[in-house]
Amino acid sequence: MAKLFSLLFLVFALQAFATVQAADSTDTSATLPSAPALRLPPAAEPPPRVLTLDLTRDANDIWDRIRRGFGMPDLDSPLVAEQQIFYLNRPGFLKQVFSRGGRYLYYIVDELERRGMPTELALLPMVESSYNPLAYSRAHASGLWQFIPSTGRNFNLTQDNWVDERRDVIASTNAALDYLQYIYEMHGDWQLALASYNWGEGAVGRALQRNRDAGLPTEYSELKMPNETRNYVPKLQAIKNIVAEPEMFHLELPYVANEQHFVTLNAPAGIDLATAATFADMSLEEFLALNPGYNRPAITAPGQTLVVPADRASNFEARLGEFAQSGKGWRTHDLEPGEKLDTIASRHGLTLAQLMQLNGLASGSRLSAGHTLLVPDGIDPSGALAISRLLPGNSRLSSPPAVKLNTSAISSKKGNTSARAASTSSKRSNSAAKTPSKRTQPATKSTAKAKPAPSAKPAAAKPAAAKAAAAKPAKAAEKQPSRKN
């Protein structure tokens, strides 16, 4: 009996245990209140980086001075990051370009400050030409600021057989800043002004009008434009960011002193550029980097100028005086009817090939009577022949050498990251590039440039002074005022 009671008790216990297990496995989510979802506050965005400058002290170097004059609104775009990667993955390129630009930056920054313009614009030639005054594009744009022939003429930049002021550092800088001021006043916006500088103010004006007609925004980032122009302002912004805080990118900018790098002196008529380079104790390449505007190896016109380093000016000027007293030099010769080039060459102690080289003549050139030739007048032509091979049009000098600086140039302290290719070429035209006009070289280079008349249409804006000059009859002979036989 006791065994039976124990067996029944065990059965009832097992049934009770099964009931409890079933209850534990039952879904109670419908009856129990659910816990509220955990909501975290949104992550706070990091505050924007603020560039802090101590304006109570003098600028340490030219980069410090440029930072102090930043005045354009920053462009916030993924394209800026892409361009930064492009530049940062090329530390050797940055080193070369910043070093090359060192000889020009003081003058450009000085002129920007005098005009009250943002100093970021001193970095624009890096986008345009990599600070190479001999740069020449497929669109026939030339010089630091990449003027096409027609725009150069609009801003009074002489282009003839003797000079091309689009390559002249001083003349082209003044013209470029005149142009930038003009298109900024047209749009009231620096990003649109820069787009106009690259694409043409007429093209930007039409893009703005299309957006207005469609009820769309008219900011730079909202316009439909070519890829080159779309990346143009981001390139400048990327360079600005690097110059603003190089340490953030683990870079060291080359030291460029905040002091005048060069001066302009009057050149005696008849001097050749090789002789002038010797007087300045400079290599031919270094001398041409400061005097890239000449198309011929000698200067025959009175009132022309030469650019030399400021610390060599006194000695250079003294030696120029000695040269002027020597009675030797270079002059021009006007081709007579029926006169042969080999006869002229022999008369002046040259071979025919040397005469053609000095005058930039190609084999088979057909010259008419009255054509002006450069010939030696009692001077050894070897220096002029050497430098003529380095003048624009000859492939032996594609860019000037980097200026020698006091400290090590930019070095990368981080591993490279992947970069997307970005074109650095630039064009500027509202119409097809035209052949440079033939006109007499001016006696001196003027720093005062006429601005386009306010009533001019954007696509064909032209300085009032340039219009007046265009109305004058062209002179019969294309040459410098010269020393003649």
From TrEMBL:
Q: Which UniProt keywords apply?
A: Signal
Look up the signal peptide feature and give its range.
1-22
Please note every region of biased composition (Polar residues).
Answer: 405-415
The record's section on PROSITE patterns has: LYSM (PS51782), TRANSGLYCOSYLASE (PS00922)
Q: Which residues form the LysM domain?
A: 331-375
Give one Pfam family. SLT
Q: GO cellular component terms?
A: membrane
The entry's protein name is Lytic transglycosylase
